[in-house]
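Example record

The entry below shows one chain as it appears in the dataset: sequence first, then structure tokens.
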Amino acid sequence: MWHAASLQRDELCKLMIKDIHERQGVKHWRVHGKGVKVRHVPLHPGSQEKINEYLQAAGHGGIPSVPLFKPIRNNRRGTTDTALTTDGAYQLIKIYGQLRQNWCVLLAARSVPFLSTRNGRKVGCNSVKH
């Protein structure tokens, strides 16, 4: 989602719930870049569903003025009411990448073929990277 929208870590961490809006019938992110630059990035419908699930699970979806992505725990400040930091976003991506790599290595070591649920064809680890 972050990569597909071409967002920088700082832009991702600055997103607020109110930054998701509709333009010409399509959901967009209002992304605040450097200075006063604002751009509108289309939001994939699948991403919107995942964001809705996340907001429902996190319990802060009804408040438009709060950060979209908040930390689960915050050892530096002792509160989770702030936005996810750029370092926090980096750590999450690092962990996700390591989990994906470990999973693919495990499959390869066991010579386990797995099938795509889209069309039944055999796929490799590169097809599950997004």
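Notes for this example: The chain has three helices and three strands. The helical segments are 9-14, 45-58, 86-109.
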